[in-house]
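Field reference: sequence -> structure
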Amino acid sequence: MNSTPGSGTSRPESMKKILFVGGTTGGGVATINNEVVAIFRGVGFRCHQLDTEKLKAKYPVVAAYMIGYLQLLWNIFKIRPQIVYLQCAQTGYLHQSLFLLLAKLTGRETIAHFHAKANLKESCTILQFRKILFSRYYIDKMILLTVPCRSSLTHNGWDKPTFVVPNFINTDELPVEISPVRDREQILYLGRMDEEKGIFDILEIARRLPSEKFVFVGNFSDSKQEQKFTAEIGTLPNASWLGPMYDRRKYDVLAASKFLLFPTRRDEFPMTLIEATLLGCIPLVNLVGSVGEIIIDGFNGYFITPDDHDGIITLIQTLNANQDLQTISDNAEAYAREHFTSDGVKDHLLQFVG
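Structure field:
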């Protein structure tokens, strides 16, 4: 996070109103949206929510946005919030940011919480990037997930206040007690079951490490990949696929795993890494996207190269022989609690917005 916070957190006026626009159900952005709302309610803001995801689930996309814009205006004139706060993603940014244009035209302060890739400029077309830069004319403040993403904006003309708040989670649902990492036997993959995320690399590693137990958790979006994966894992007695898991079941499987093996090739901010480190599960992960914002190599996890199966196997064998493995696990948990939990980001977030 980049800021120069003062001492303590000032409480806003108890009647100050803020309208949050974004999803409230499901994972990802909706999870962050709900946590941000909870933080602001906890210090006295009067918070209202406009759930855009429910509209998109009920209506065709174009109709959902048109209805959403009308509902925004209705809420502004009915509730009269001082601030309109939008959770938005890189995909469909223009349509989403129009909520803030309408809010600005009605005299509200506007804040965008932008979930974008670390290398924003290179992951957009020139036209898309220009549209994002243009939105500074109606967005007063921008919250971003990573320092590189912030730099890609500010170095190319963004002149409004920006702030970095990484993705974070509420720890209330996490297991209170977790086993020492030496007592755990399995190596876990948790995420979308996709070749780009390295699931077939892990199968090859499992084939070459028959003494290790490998567990996969997640769901497929591609039936051909599912068929291929199912056929291959059926030949490996030391590997199993448990399907998707959510909430406490997901946390329990993380707490039972010594390593999270995550050879992803995608530019993303993996919430899985935060959840794993909070539960003392040591990530072995490719340095791509925003991974470097979460993992410090050799301190709270280790960097791997997806195609380097020999190197990954050697690393696993070396770590199994490492007498200080618990230190890495403890570092992972402590670092995540400080930087990637609601308590960890609360003061910084409130200071920037309030």
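Note: The first helix runs from residue 29 to 42.
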